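Following up on my earlier thread - several people asked me to post the actual chain instead of describing it. Fair enough. Here it is, all 162 residues.
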Amino acid sequence: MRKFVLLFSLLLASVAAQAQFEKGTMIVNPSLTGLDFSYSKNSKAAFGLGGQAGAFLSDGFALMVNAEASWSRPVNNYGLGTGVRYYFNSTGIYLGGGIDWERYRYKGGLHDSDWGLGLEAGYAFFLSRTVTIEPAVYYKWRFDNSDNSRFGIKIGFGFYFK
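Reply from S.P.:
Thanks for posting it. Predicted structure:
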């Protein structure tokens, strides 16, 4: 019986979520929890914060802009970027991708910057009609220095409104 109730609740949530991925809807997605744990060759783990905002240009397809910052022992980085998200069948599962620019500040005062591509896969779990928790996995590939490429997980909140 529990499994049936859970399945019914998830089905109901995905039906209610369908309206949130329509053309004209706006999304704000801050990583308020600060849980942006990543791994790369240059830094073993990083604590980060980020935020995204965007608009749905068509049903299920959103254009996004983002800003982020992360801190680790040997290097701190700050980034700006743009990309897209595609939501599958109003279930909340999404894939995203984009291009970004990052500025690195190494211990000892050295600076560097690099362009790269990012890929992301996640799930928008609706807490209410307009608020979600969004866990995701991502990979960021750097053009100039592949040692700065990284794989990680993050948890954020999504706010959807017309």
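Residues 7 and 114 are 45 Å apart (CA to CA). That should answer part of your original question.
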